[in-house]
Design a protein that fits this description.
Length: 256
Amino acid sequence: MEASALSAHVRAFSPALYNRLPDVRDADVAFQTARDRDAFLGEIGDLICGHGLELYVGVSLLHKHNPVSDDQLMVEVFDEITYQRPALMMQRMASDIAPGHVPVVFRVADDDDALVPMEHSAVEPARDAYTELARRMATFLPPFCATVRKYRYEDLIGLYIVRESLLPVAEGERLIERIDGERAANVTSAEIPPTEAGSRLIPTTWWFTSGEGSTRWCVPRECYSKKICYEPPTGKHEPDVVHRAVWHEHGPDTAT
């Protein structure tokens, strides 16, 4: 199936729906206080890994940083110049001149098994992951939508396409998303996590990895105040022997 076939399952972008997304702090409170949060992450992780999509998609806490007008989209581009390091810059663009892009954050539609795009990206890894998602869409989308609805998370959790391979992460670094007020952009790049007083981390995106047999665990992406940082899924989080893995904020917990 070509990526274009996915369009049958993807609605048009809705500026009004995007602008209704909550602030990241409000979304975090709602998800952190949900008593079935861990059960949801475990079930959705099993579903993603069971369809062989763990390298391509995860789930994301639905929130916004910048409102858009009726003729705008939030579109991500790769930038190596503006911030003097490789960065992914998500910013408002006029919908009629935005570069070739694909949706990368989706909300589950209210009325059927379809996705509503919230954010877009013009980077190559996003297009590759979007194509891979299209190949599995017929079997993956119905149970994905059903699981989100089962937990009543339609307004809280969405599908997320992974595309951060463009950003090399050195030892001790995380990918930090900062707000660039001048450009009304969210900018993600690799750096040492800030440590100033009053800071806190908010998990906003979960990527799932699979180990031996049917083991699953997830690696969270986290929001730092107005900034977002996350740990990419690497072998560092994998124990030498895994009998059973359950969801944990910072990697796998294991039990025999």
